[in-house]
Write a structure and sequence with these properties.
Layout lengths: L1 E7 L3 E8 L4 E9 L7 E6 L5 E4 L5 H13 L11 E8 L10 E2 L2 H9 L8 H14 L4 E6 L9 H4 L6 H6 L8 H14 L8 E7 L3 E7 L2 E5 L20 H9 L4 H10 L2 H6 L6 H9 L3 H25 L4 E5 H6 L1 H8 L11 H6 L8 E3 L8 E5 L3 H14 L12 E7 L2 E5 H8 L7 E4 L6 E10 L4 E12 L3 E3 L2 H7 L5 E2 L10 E5 L2 E5 L3 E4 L2 E4 L1 H7 L6 E6 L5 E10 L6 E5 H7 L6 E9 L4
Parallel strand pairs: 1-6, 6-8, 9-12, 12-14, 15-28, 16-19, 20-24, 21-24, 25-27
Antiparallel strand pairs: 1-2, 2-3, 3-4, 4-5, 7-8, 9-10, 10-11, 13-14, 15-29, 16-20, 17-18, 18-19, 18-22, 22-23, 25-28, 26-27, 26-29
Helix pairs in contact: 1-3, 6-15, 10-11, 11-13
């Protein structure tokens, strides 16, 4: 399966073509100065000489037509355009709704356009590229992969700003995070190198280039990251300021600086460039000047190093210790002195470098990853040659093939897994009690099943022994309030709910629910949800099962097992998905990217 990855900017189109059966990069390149009379093409292919030439590219459509003509020319890597199975588009911002790769339709386009408010320099050109590719390849699936998606499961304490909460509920002002494909690639590469599964690792990953960010990854999930609502927050970068006292901007505004001037200063005139006085802000230029005795350049590197080390220490605290520290990006891969300066003094974290290994590290020529930690250091330090485009191509393949692309060993009929985190379904009366009369819950993101979504609002659960804060609410409202938790949650709360099918609440315990406007005592409605599979009638026919049948499924991987007592629920609007709670998922080593294999009918309840 051939996948073309496109990254459309305001004046450039970058591309890479992959054969995903082997993950081989067949061709790559870019067209720069799109829209000008001096557009320039750079093109490379597997086993061929590099091509550099001027070309005509008055707009993105013309640039993409030129790229496709190169790919399908005689002797090119693609015999026919029809052999391209999908185009993956890198899109910077997907907001709270687009937290996974998605096939692009009108609704996805609208959401990308809405998120341009947060990424005005990136999302509009991406949309232009999407439209151009759709027109050039009308029969090819177009899939969007988002920089923000890997951070889609950030917990509320990590993504919430300490601003009036209405700004989040009404306008979506929160932290989103970026560089997702790079951080995801680093995590998977680290797990492969350390010969373990990513779910068993605590990692701090550092993407250090012109843009820079750090992420805390727990079990393959991003739990904190340095960039915020926009890529301006966090580390010192090439030309971006990173963390800054907002009072500075207020002061400059009062002194007459306009929004456009502030934007230009923060994005293009700050960071290493602003500190050092070297306009490019390129770390290589700044480092060269610092080594030559330039005081401002040395200060710039020291500030960069200090900020980075501070984030690493903070994220190690968030994770409760780390198994590995991972570096990538133009700076992370190519500056041994920066890695040494950052790691100096981190012995208390188990970090100690092998000086020779660090000085000679070249991951691009050594299998893509190098361990530069001292032999007996408990925390590994890895240098990875990141391949964001390959990660995007992988996500496109998974989206196109279905979750089976993630677990190729599952040969029977696959069923995607959805891990159901503790959540609450509210009645109208109870919603009023918690949030105020006639309060309308706001959408954070969709869930698998059509018409349902996670709200931005959360509630607290209070039991005889303890409480759980910030529990998700699923909308739309129901006739009866229902609380779905895992067994470990029940222990923490001090309640003993039975395993029940949704809606079967007789004889179930209650607890107290608390919201911003009040609280109430729920007399019944707390359950451990019976694991179940949602199917459409077509799905049910394909599997040969009916509504209320009970089936068994097989889990493959490190914790291979068979799960029985899986209830089938069939409805016209259902999307194929097996729901298990967090305890079941952890026990079986499953996540939201996993699949299970259908093994057969255990019992037929009703046909």
């Amino acid at each position: 399966m051939k996948v073309l990855v496109l990254n459309a900017g305001s004046t450039s189109v970058k591309y890479q073509l992959y054969e995903m059966d082997t993950e081989t990069r067949l061709a790559y390149g870019k067209i720069e100065r799109v829209g000008s009379a001096s557009a320039q093409l750079s093109h490379s292919e597997l086993g061929s000489a590099k091509l550099n030439e001027a070309c005509s590219a008055p707009d993105a459509r013309a640039a993409i037509d030129k790229i496709l003509a190169l790919l399908v020319r005689d002797g090119g890597p693609v015999p026919r355009l029809e052999d391209i199975a999908a185009v993956g588009h890198r899109v910077v911002h997907g907001g709270e709704r687009l937290v996974r790769p998605v096939i692009i339709d009108d609704e996805v386009r609208r959401t990308i356009a809405e998120c341009a408010e947060y990424a005005p320099l990136h999302n509009p050109p991406a949309l232009t590229g999407i439209e151009a590719a759709t027109a050039a390849l009308p029969g090819v699936v177009q899939i969007a992969v988002f920089d923000t998606a890997f951070h889609g499961e950030l917990p509320p304490p990590a993504f919430t700003y300490a601003l009036p909460h209405a700004l989040y509920l009404e306008r979506g002002i929160r932290r989103y995070g970026f560089h997702g494909p790079s951080h995801q690639f680093m995590a998977l590469a680290a797990a492969e190198h350390l010969k373990t599964h990513v779910t068993r690792l605590k990692l701090v990953t550092c993407h250090l280039g012109g843009g820079a960010s750090v992420t805390a990854i727990d079990g393959g999930v991003s739990v904190d990251t340095s960039m915020g609502m926009t890529p301006l927050e966090g580390l010192v970068m090439g030309t971006r300021a990173g963390d800054l006292d907002p009072g500075v901007l207020l002061l400059l505004t009062r002194r007459g600086m306009k929004a456009e001037e502030l934007d230009a200063m923060l994005n293009k005139q700050s960071g290493l460039a602003g500190l050092s006085g070297i306009p490019s802000g390129d770390f290589r230029d700044v480092e060269l000047a610092a080594n030559g005795g330039d005081v401002r350049a040395r200060l710039a590197i020291d500030v960069f190093t200090h900020r980075l080390r501070k984030y690493i220490g903070a994220y190690a605290a968030v994770l409760g210790g780390i198994d590995a520290l991972v570096f990538t990006g133009g700076i992370g891969e190519n500056s041994p002195s920066l890695r040494a300066a950052v790691c100096d003094g981190l012995l208390y974290m188990g970090i100690a470098l092998d000086g020779e290994a660090n000085a000679s590290a070249n991951p691009a020529t050594r299998g893509g990853i190098v361990d530069v930690a001292a032999a007996r250091a408990p925390t590994r330090v890895l240098v990875v040659a990141t391949e964001e485009e390959k990660m995007i191509a992988r996500e496109v393949a998974r989206c196109l093939r279905g979750p089976t692309a993630a677990i190729r060993s599952v040969h029977a009929k696959p069923i995607p897994v959805g891990v159901s985190v503790r959540h609450v379904h509210l009645s109208r009366a109870h919603c009023d009690a918690l949030f105020g009369k006639d309060y309308e819950l706001s959408k954070r993101r969709d869930v698998t099943q059509k018409g349902q979504y996670v709200t931005r609002e959360t509630v607290d659960l209070i039991g005889p022994k303890g409480e759980l804060r910030g529990v998700a609410v699923i909308n739309p409202l129901r006739e009866t309030t229902q609380v779905e938790i895992a067994k470990t949650d029940a222990f923490a709360l001090g309640v003993s709910p039975p395993i029940r099918e949704s809606g079967q609440l007789d004889g179930t315990p209650g607890l107290r629910l608390r919201g911003p406007a009040g609280e109430f005592e729920l007399d019944k409605g707390v359950i451990l949800a019976l694991r179940h599979v949602h199917m459409s009638p077509d799905d049910a026919q394909a599997f040969g099962v009916g509504d209320k049948d009970v089936i068994t499924v097989r889990v493959e991987g490190d914790r291979e097992m068979t799960m029985g007592d899986v209830l089938v629920r069939v409805r016209e609007d259902f999307v194929l998905d097996m729901h298990i709670d967090t305890d079941e998922a952890n026990g079986a080593g499953l996540g939201n990217d996993s699949v299970v294999a259908f093994e057969g009918i255990q019992a037929q309840r009703r046909r």
